[in-house]
Each structure stands twice: as C-alpha cells, then as structure tokens.
Amino acid sequence: MTIVRVEEVTYGVTDLVQCTKFLEDFGLTPLEPEPAGAVFRTATNQIIRLRDLNDPGLPPAVAEGPCIRQIIWGVTDAGDLDHIAADLDVTARNPDGTLATTDLTGFSIGFRVARPEPVGVSLSAGTTAMAATNAPGRSESSTSLWIFRKRAPPKPRASTSTGCISSRWKTSPLRERSCNAKANPIITSSSFATAPIERASIMSPLK
Fold it and tell me: How far apart are CA 1 and CA 26, in angstroms?
C-alpha cells in the first residue's frame, strides 16, 4: 500500500468569511460554494473545505475550537483501497470510491485513489513545461539551480574593545577610570603611572 499525498481536508472554523478570504488571498482556486461553507482547490487538485464550527454535518471534533475535522489520503490505485478496506473497519464507501473510517482517537479519515494534476511552469508566451517534482518512488526534481558553498561567509564580529563587563570590576574603584581610559584616547595607562592619586588608588585594596 502506498499513500502518496493528502487529497482533501475539512476544517471547522468560527469565522467562515474571514477564513474564506484568507484562502483566496493565499491564491487557492475557489470552487462552487457549498450551502454550509466554501471549497477551494490547489494547483495539484487537492481540496480544502471550510465549514462552520457548529455545522452538524461535520465529523466529530477531537479538540476544542476551530480545527481540522477530516483528512482524506490519496493512494496509488484501487488495489490499495482494497487492502485498506480489508485491514480497517471501514464505515462507508462513497460513490466516488472514498473509504471512510476513524483512527484510534475517533478522528475522521478517508482514503481514495489520488488524482493529482501536473503543474505547468511558464517559460515564455505559449510555452510551458512540467515542473520537476519528487514523490514516493519518483525523483525528478533537479538541483542544478542550487548554489552550493564550500563554507559559510564569515559574520562580522562585534568589537568589545571598550566594554567593561567583567563582574570583578563591578566594585572596583578603578572601574570607572579604566572605562574612561578605554573610551577616551587622552586618558591612557601611562596616566595612572604618573598621577600620585591614581597610584594610591591602584595600591589600595578593593572594597
């Protein structure tokens, strides 16, 4: 048995208008609206259904609030459906061939033969080509356009030449003077050696 992709998902939502607008803005193709919700289609013929959260026609929820209510998986062929029907407790078989059942949590799932549609990539006016894609048992995607680097470009390192971050300096009377010496080119280490007050501060124990 080969499950190749998700064929259809159904959501229970609290704001049907807002969710419909989101999928339209996302670029999905709207289909004929259902009386209780909206239906969209992806470029590869996958279906997304939106229904009101309290719609009695929705499968039972396994979580509170808006959430996914059903997933229908696509399999390779009718033989796979027969194997699934023999292994699982199938509750219904719809006219389109979809097997309906639930998983161990009570979540509604289904299986049917996958009906993918190819995606064309526009090359020029009047010319299209199939987009290379990968799928179970098929590896067609080309990596010729990928850019590989032998090493990552080095990141600039932040300068810490004027930072006074050591915890040992927090109570030191030299802390302020050292910070000033690093930040001010006029105050250098030689200034401490020639000033009597500075020498006394250096010799005194830290408190």
Answer: 33
pTM: 0.57
User: Which residues lie below 8 Å from residue 192, measured CB to CB, with a gap of 6+?
Assistant: 177, 181, 198, 199, 202
Give the C-alpha separation, 164 to 123, whole Å. 59
**Residue 146 to residue 126: CA distance in whole angstroms:** 27
HSE-up (13 A, CA, CB side) for residue 61: 15
User: Which structural domains are found in the chain, ordered by start?
Assistant: 3-113 (3.10.180.10), 167-203 (no CATH)
**How far is residue 49 from each of residues 12, 14, 20, 56, 129, measured CA to CA in Å?**
9, 14, 10, 15, 30
Q: Give the burial class of 10: count Cβ atoms within 10 A of its Cβ; 0-12 exposed, 13-18 middle, 19 or more buried.
A: buried
Residues 98-156 have pLDDT tens digits of: 999 999 899 999 999 998 887 655 544 554 455 556 665 566 665 555 555 566 667 66
Residues 6+ apart with CB under 8 A from 65: 14, 53
